[in-house]
Amino acid sequence: MPSFPLVDLLDRLRDRLGLEAVGGKIDPTRAIESADVNRPGLALTGYVEGFPRDRVQILGGTELGYLRTLPAGERPVALRHVCEQRVPCIIVSGGVPLPEGMEQVAGEFDVPVIQSARPAVDVIHEVSHLLDDELAPTTTVHGSLVDVYGVGLLLTGRSGIGKSETALDLVERGQRLVADDAVTIRRKADNVLIGSGNDLLRHRMEIRGLGIIDVQSIFGIRSIRAQKRVEVEVNLREWSKDDDYERHGLNTQRTEILGAAIEKVVVPIIPGKNVTVICETVAMHYLVKAYGYDPAEHFNENLLELMRRKANLAVLARDDTE
Amino acid sequence: MIEKEVVVKNYPGIHAHPAGLLVKLASRFSAEVFVTKEDMTVNGKSIMGVLTLAAETGAKLTIRAEGEDASEAVDAIVGLIESKFEEEQG
Predict the structure, then answer these.
(1) Which class for A133: exposed (0-12), middle (13-18), buried (19 or more C-beta within 10 A)?
(2) Phi-psi region of A137 (alpha: psi -120 to 50; beta: other; left: phi over 0)
(3) Quick one: angle between helices B16-27 and B70-82, nearest 10?
(4) How many whole angstroms separate alpha carbon A311 and alpha carbon A306?
(5) pLDDT tens sequence across A119-172
(6) What tens digit of pLDDT does each residue of B22-41 get?
(7) Is A200 close to B54, i.e. CB distance below 8 A?
């Protein structure tokens, strides 16, 4: 299960949200495991059935207003309901003083408290965004990721089939390299896959027979890109008469990465075939379909219409025995 | 599927030269070879992949292979790493 250290959250959002840890230090081993945040309104009243205790708890205007309506002695009791769930941390938003008894109760259950100068909506937005990014499921895929006309193509295939060479050829034609060989893919909310390279390798690649080259220093800044949504997998395969390749294109193959489905195109490799042009065509074809025109579908409809007309005429001629 | 653990012994670790020896060796086998360090798994026949691991002296690696000659492949690679890449004379 991925986790994100609370100290890193504090560092990353300190300036933007005006964060400050109450009592100064935060235990560096403390980590957050849920990408969601929670407003513990109801829990303050003591109703903790189904309380999401693994989430960051954010106290906003509503919670703080409710606490103010309580008689002075009961405020720590309300806070105790939340703290005794041992939540990962509590953020008090709005730049207001801590509610009465907050420090003592939180200290008792060892719950870190952070104050923010910004209103709760901003805190929720920024914290969710950061956690969503950092806690997204991640995998490493063996392949090359290239931005081709704005479409993220993930080139896959066995070692030595020519993924890097195809990527290089695409870059030479003005496309942009995201990562070669080891592509890190994160699944963001709503099934969007984001691919990026590795900080160590950057935009270097191995070209067999030549060794390690640096794409950025050869082709310049316009030839690279830091990250890109992964939209189509192009699977390079040696041509085999037993393989079933798509011929008319009415069926779209799909594949899953981290549970998110993307389009998949299997391209058979034979000597003399221009894989680069095929890759560019895959990207443009994807765009054409995304804009609402499916050439295979359209062609087939025309064909069906033509055949219906001819068949109807034949029936007419046959029945016309006058 | 064959899998073995090995600890990197050469100093300072698997840099470009030893990585080259490792992928050359792995490429001689028809089995698919994977190298894992912590939560990162890379293709053992790809030099960029193996370099990405930045495996330093003392790092624990898992060598995994799938295919006909998987066990020979794993033994050969584990042997290479344990021999400190034959002091990188290969």
Answers:
(1) middle
(2) beta
(3) 160
(4) 9
(5) 999 999 999 999 988 888 888 899 999 999 999 999 999 888 999 999 999 999
(6) 999 999 999 999 999 998 89
(7) yes
DSSP code string of B23-54:
HHHHHTSSSEEEEEETTEEEETT-HHHHHHT-
pLDDT tens, A39-79?
998 999 989 899 999 999 999 999 999 999 998 888 889 99
A93 φ/ψ angles, rounded to the nearest 5 degrees? -95, 175
- To the nearest whole Å, the CA of B83 is away from the closest chain A CA by 25
- Chain A residues inside the 8 Å CB shell of B52: 181-182, 198, 200-201
For chains A and B, CB pairs below 8 A equal 42
Q: Give the tokens for residue A177.
A: 């390299």
Q: What percent of chain A has pLDDT over 90?
A: 61
CA separation for the pair A15, A3 (Å, rounded): 22
Is-catalytic flag, B15? yes
Alpha-carbon distance values, A63 to A43, A69, A100, A109, A128 (Å) = 10, 10, 13, 20, 19
Q: Catalytic pick from A163, A203, A225, A228? A: A163
Contacts of A49 (CB under 8 A, 6+ apart): none
- Residue B89 banded pLDDT, cuts 50, 70, 90: low
The pTM of the full predicted model, rounded to 2 decimals, is 0.78
Alpha-carbon gap, residue A174 to B21, rounded angstroms: 34
Nearest Cβ partner of A159 from B16, B46, B54? Answer: B46
Residue B65, classified by CB atoms within 10 Å of its CB into exposed (0-12), middle (13-18) or buried (19+), is buried
Inter-chain touch A200–B27, beta carbons under 8 Å? no
- Which of A 212-271 lie inside 8 A of B, CB atoms? 212
- Contact status of A1 with chain B (Cβ, < 8 Å): no
pLDDT confidence of residue A147: 98
